[in-house]
């Protein structure tokens, strides 16, 4: 929910299966809205001033002692720099460990007939080119809205999401942060309800 006291500086809809990126300035907030529900949003974060200072799943998980993200989670770089903080979360659980789908992982998990399908890694590479980023700059990502339970034996599952139409989360930028998104195109597991849909990105200050 956009506070009345805040000014909208960007409001864009990311089409189903599409990429998106923007620099969110320190103090600004990014609201990610799951328009139709059950849509996974893969995300990478970089310091806008130095793209080598980037989101680290390991540093983030270690600092908060929790593999899941929700309100209060601080998204950190490898050296501990705070990039963004989750300041509001209507879903309550977001994944840090399942990674991004790729044409290679589709083939491995779902069969060779899926290799031609577009995937998140391809979205990241295409969108990252706009900012001078390449394959070496891709790291373990966040999966907003994605439900990945972890069993006692360490087994991961990818199951129906916990989100619903119109639910959202809001991130506050602690420094100028480049946000890179793949609105996940996966159709072989339930992370998108087998039907990728658009999401809305709103930046306010």
Which sheet architecture does the biggest sheet show?
Answer: 6 strands, antiparallel
The helix/strand class is alpha+beta
Order of helices and strands: EEEEHEEHHEEEE
Radius of gyration: 16 Å
Low-pLDDT runs: none
Number of strands: 10
How many DSSP H or I helices? Answer: 3
Give the overall pLDDT as a whole number: 92
- Intertermini distance: 14 Å
Please state roughly what percent of the residues sit in beta strands, choosing from under 5%, 5-15%, 15-25%, 25-35%, 35-45% or over 45%: 25-35%
Oligomer kind: single chain
What portion of residues is helical? 10-25%
InterPro entries: DUF1989, UAAP2
Protein name: Urea carboxylase-associated family protein
Domain DUF1989: 12-178
Pfam family, one: DUF1989
Describe what this molecule looks like in 3D:
It is a single chain. By secondary structure, the chain is of the alpha+beta class. It has one domain. Helix content is 12%, strand content 29%. A hairpin with a 5-residue loop joins strand 5 and strand 6 (82-89). The mean pLDDT is 92. InterPro entries: DUF1989, UAAP2. Residues 12-178 form the DUF1989 domain. This is Urea carboxylase-associated family protein. Pfam families: DUF1989.
Quick overview of this protein structure:
Residues 12-178 form the DUF1989 domain. This protein has helices at 57-64, 103-110, 120-128, and strands at 8-14, 19-24, 29-34, 41-47, 74-76, 82-89, 142-144, 167-173, 177-183, 199-204. It has 205 residues and is of the alpha+beta class.
């Amino acid at each position: 929910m956009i506070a009345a006291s805040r000014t909208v500086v960007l409001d864009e809809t990311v089409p189903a299966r599409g990429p998106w990126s923007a620099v969110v300035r320190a103090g600004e907030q990014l609201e990610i809205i799951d328009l139709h529900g059950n849509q996974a949003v893969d995300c990478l974060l970089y310091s806008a001033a130095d793209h080598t200072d980037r989101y680290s799943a390991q540093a983030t998980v270690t600092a908060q002692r929790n593999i899941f993200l929700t309100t209060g989670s601080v998204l950190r770089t490898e050296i501990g720099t705070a990039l963004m903080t989750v300041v509001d979360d209507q879903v309550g659980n977001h994944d840090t460990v399942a990674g991004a789908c790729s044409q290679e992982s589709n083939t491995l998990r779902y069969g060779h007939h899926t290799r031609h399908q577009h995937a998140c890694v391809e979205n990241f590479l295409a969108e990252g080119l706009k900012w001078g980023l390449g394959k070496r700059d891709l790291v373990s990502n966040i999966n907003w809205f994605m439900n990945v339970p972890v069993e006692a034996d360490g087994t991961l599952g990818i199951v129906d999401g916990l989100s619903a139409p119109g639910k959202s989360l809001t991130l506050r930028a602690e420094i100028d942060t480049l946000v890179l998104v793949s609105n996940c195109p996966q159709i072989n597991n339930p992370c998108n309800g087998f039907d990728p849909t658009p999401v809305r990105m709103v930046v306010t200050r």
